Amino acid sequence: MKGKIVLITGSTDGIGKHTATELIRMGAEVITHGRNKHRGKETAELMGKYSGNGVPEYVNADLSSLSRVKSLAATIHSKYDHIDVLINNAGIFSREQTFTPDGIETTFAVNHLAHFSLSLQLLPLLLKSEQGRIITVSSMVHKNSPRISFDDLQEINSYMDYSAYALSKLANVLFSVELAQKLHDTNVTSNSLHPGVINTKLLKAGFGLSGDPVEEGSQTSVYLASADIVSDISGKYFVNSREVEASPYAYNPGLRKNLWKLSEELCELKFTDFM
Question: What is the pTM of this model?
C-alpha cells in the first residue's frame, strides 16, 4: 500500500479507525474522516505515530447533509489529483425516526445516500488511479431486509429501527453491484462486505450486544483495499475476506436500477456527469 491514497469515511472510531491504522502501517497515505472535528484531529494525531508520512489528513463532514457531502468531495478534489481507494465505512443505527435537513430519513441518508453521492463525485479521482477501488461496508443484516418498496423506501409511514437499518445495508449492496456494472470497462472496481459482528458503539446501541474485537472487523476492508488477488474482482460481496452470495435482491437488475434512479434524484447527481 506504499504510496496509495485511501479515504475512509467514519474512521475516527471503531472499525473505520482500526482499518485506517492498519492501512497506515502498510504504508498507505490515509485520509481520515469524521463529524466531530476535535475528536477527528485528535485521532489523526494518534495515528501519526504509525505513519512515515506524518499526521494523516483529517476531513470533517456530517454525512446526514448532502450539501456537506458535496463540500467533502470538493475538499478532496482541491487537495488530491487522484485517490486509489475509497472505503465507505461510516454508518448509524437510529432508534427513533428522524429526518435530515434535506427531508430524508436519517438512516437511509447516512448509510446509503451519502456514500452514493460521495462515490460518484470522487469517481474522476479514482479513475486517475492505476487501479481504483470502491469498498462499501454493508452488513449480513441486509439479507433480513423485510421488503423494498419504492413507494415508501425510507419507511416514512412504517418506521422500525432494525428494518430501516437492514434496508440501508441492502441499499449498500445493491449500489455496490450496480456501480460495478457501470464501471465494468474502467480501471475502478466496486465491492461490498460484511465486517463481522464487531464490538462497536453501533452494535451496543442498536442491538445491545458485544461482539468480536474491532481488529477482526477491519480485516475484510483491509483485504479488499490491498490484496492484489482482488484487483480485477468487482460487483461481489465478501465475508471474512472471501466472496460469498449476497441477498437474492442484489442480483435483480430492475431493483438495482430503480434504487439507482431514485438515489440520483435525491442526490441531484448524474453518474454520467462524472465519467
Answer: 0.91
